[in-house]
Design goal:
Length: 665
């Protein structure tokens, strides 16, 4: 029985070019059925739009370079890697030749090697001005009406939150240290207008109320748009999600339509975004859907802890950008329901965690042992706030001639977070927490909705503390691994095969959906302030972007300083200030030195007793890699370690407004 996609493909008669770049030209394309998958470039056409003839199709490696003009608002970017392309599009997103030789004739010539040359453009493909191909045309809305508006909730007038999302405290970041390494690093931009992202993506950026790019976006977006691989470190809450989503979306829209095989039951995404937990994947999916709204690009998410059947249904409807956790993706690959053979963009969020001990084999399997095009034939982007040197070394296997980017004192915390450390014995921790919560209420400096996130070491500890807080009259909820099948955070030592077994076990499926609902419910209840205290294990440490988290309490300190950085990064996000309090006692001795260093880097007041501890303490053992590894910050390009000094071809530092010498020296 043919899948929806296969029906769709054959109906559309999309040209298919096989992996060897031999192009075959499809004839005409009958109108698509609404339930069918429609490739991005064909979506959202007016009802009754005439049959589309002659779609350019090239292989994943092939390129097509539109030689036509774009209007004056646009800045051309060159794509200097295999597979990069500028598609010349007409006002409906199809490639058009100049000279009108177009009625039923073939549009593009596909040259040997799959490089097609578009010969011109009628109308602007990408303008920012009037007459844009991608926005405002009547008739497009017929199909777009069916796309749920991801901005609907935010577009309701709200006097409290309806203000410019100015993001990072831009003034404070004028002098932010920035380091780039690698060959021919494209220069940064200062405004979104300088980057040609296309009208519909620009419109969505406006809807997000992003006024200007954050520091990491200023550097990462031009680098990625130039087709370069990237390893990027930037502080928590600094807008990394958009930094990898924008180039992916813009890249897909720019590229010539890629004919995907007829009759394939498998989903054939063009971009894959991997992240460690279901919550983070879900959050990235929500963000990416906003950025891709009304572009015709379909974003689908697949994560463990939720029934696979719904996700399969979504995948069958077609996918351009797949956001996934490694475990669930592994399952889908094993079931042959997803193929990675058309991947042009691979992004790893929280990349250091994804390549951490225990998970590297899963990621290697996905990236290197399935059917994904190798480095150099896809574009790979790795992002995190922390990037230990040994993880960089592992990660470099996935990259090709990449640029290393470090924005801010990477691996350190932001100055926006006030860090406090209190010496508290275990037995006193609860009453200390109570004092903090009372103080927070009493100061009145926080609005009623201010949220407190409390990190503990174990699931049992989380449940016990939540129970106690509730009994004391403080509405609290909890999130930890037992409440779902978190794929990384909690499965650290479980092997790939066991994960598949677990996810496939039908007896588990109802349990999975119950626990995942619990976790979803807990997060929603925290986000909305219904339960303004969330007790969490490290599963909530990375990536989660919850506005109004005013206070992070490390009830139990982690043993790894990088985990501390990510945990406290749940507050003080996007230019807002935050408070982080750590309960410290003798058990945390190994963390002392990196903690003191971190606080000093972030201009925090370090208690004298902690400094004394630090002078007595050993370095934090193997896990505290920043200090153990010798590099001052977690964000120095490991390739430079052996290449310092004269003639270092990898080095190029911007150093914020100052430029000149490396900000790290
Ligand atoms: N250009 C911008 N202007 C204003 N706000 C922005 C901009 N870019 C991103 N943001 C907002 O900043 C917040 C943090 O972004 P994001 O979650 O991508 O951070 P991050 O760097 O990935 O953090 P983490 O390291 O914790 O994962 C989000 O609420 C996002 O909407």
């Amino acid at each position: 029985m043919p899948s929806v996609w296969s029906e769709s493909s054959s109906e559309l008669g999309v040209e298919h070019v096989n992996a060897n770049n031999s192009a075959s030209v499809g004839a005409t394309i009958p109108p698509s059925r609404s339930s069918s998958y429609v490739p991005p470039h064909l979506r959202n056409r007016p009802q009754g739009a005439s049959t589309i003839n002659n779609i350019i199709a090239v292989s994943a490696e092939g390129s097509s370079l539109g030689a036509g003009t774009r209007d004056s608002g646009s800045t051309a970017s060159t794509v200097n890697r295999p597979g990069g392309a500028w598609a010349a599009r007409d006002s409906t997103g199809s490639a058009l030749p100049s000279g009108g030789a177009w009625g039923g004739a073939r549009v593009n010539t596909v040259q040997p090697g799959g490089r097609g040359v578009g010969v011109g453009v009628t109308g602007s493909g990408w303008s920012n001005g009037s007459g844009s191909a991608w926005s405002g045309r009547s008739g497009w809305n017929g199909a777009r009406e069916h796309e749920k508006n991801p901005f609907a909730a935010e577009e309701q007038p709200n006097p409290v939150f309806d203000q410019e999302n100015t993001g990072i405290n831009f003034d404070a970041y004028e002098d932010i240290p920035v380091e780039t390494s690698g060959e021919n690093v494209p220069p940064p931009v200062n405004t979104f207008a300088e980057i040609d992202l296309g009208e519909s993506l620009n419109e969505n950026i406006r809807r997000c109320k992003y006024v200007k790019p954050t520091p990491v976006q200023k550097y990462a977006i031009p680098i990625s748009l130039a087709g370069r691989d990237l390893m990027a470190c930037a502080q928590t809450g600094s807008g990394k999600t958009a930094a990898f989503c924008f180039p992916i979306i813009a890249g897909i829209l720019r590229s010539p339509p890629i004919g995907r095989p007829r009759g394939a039951r498998k989903a054939l995404p063009l971009a894959l975004i991997l992240s460690p937990t279901r919550e983070l994947s879900s959050q990235i999916h929500d963000e990416a859907k906003k950025f891709a709204y009304q572009t015709g690009i379909r974003v689908v998410v697949a994560y463990g802890g939720a029934p696979i059947h719904n996700q399969l249904r979504e995948l069958e409807r077609g996918v351009d950008i797949l956001v996934a956790t490694p475990g669930r993706l592994g399952d889908l690959l094993e079931r042959a329901r997803v193929s990675l053979s058309y991947i042009k963009y691979l992004a790893l969020d929280e990349a250091d965690r994804m390549l951490d001990m225990g998970f590297e084999p899963q990621i290697r399997r996905i990236v290197e042992q399935m059917d994904m095009p190798p480095a150099g034939q896809r574009q790979t982007m790795l992002f995190s706030a922390t990037f230990p040197r040994e993880i960089q070394r592992l990660a470099s296997d996935f990259l090709w001639n990449y640029i290393f980017l470090a924005v801010g004192r990477v691996g350190s915390s932001t100055d926006l977070i006030v860090q406090k450390v209190e010496f508290v014995q275990d037995a006193e921790k609860r009453s200390m927490l109570m004092d903090l919560i009372h103080a927070q209420k009493a100061t009145g400096s926080q609005s009623q909705q201010a949220l407190t996130l409390v990190f503990v070491e174990t699931k049992r500890g989380a449940d016990a503390l939540e129970d106690w807080l509730c009994r004391m009259g403080f509405p609290a909820t909890t999130i930890h691994g037992d409440r779902s099948q978190s794929e990384i955070g909690e499965f650290k030592s479980i092997r790939w095969s066991s994960i598949l077994l677990e996810l496939r076990c039908p007896l588990n499926s109802s349990h999975i959906s119950v626990v995942s609902q619990e976790r979803e419910h807990a997060l929603r209840s925290f986000r909305t302030g219904v339960t303004p205290i969330l007790v969490a294990t490290d599963v909530a440490a990375r990536g989660l972007d919850i506005p109004r988290v005013a206070h992070v309490v490390n009830f139990d300190l982690p043993s790894d300083i990088d985990d501390y950085v990510h945990r406290i990064g749940r507050t003080g996000r996007a230019g807002k200030t935050g408070l982080a309090t750590a309960f410290f006692n003798d058990k945390d001795l190994s963390l002392t030195r990196p903690l003191v260093e971190l606080m000093q880097e972030a201009n925090q007041e370090v208690p004298g007793w902690l400094v004394n501890y630090a002078s007595r303490a050993n370095y934090g053992g193997g896990r505290n890699r920043r200090s153990g590894g010798g590099a001052r910050f977690g964000g120095r390009d490991y390739r430079r370690e052996g290449a310092r000094g004269a003639g270092d071809r990898y080095s190029s530092a911007y150093g914020g407004s100052g430029g000149g010498s490396s900000a790290w020296d």
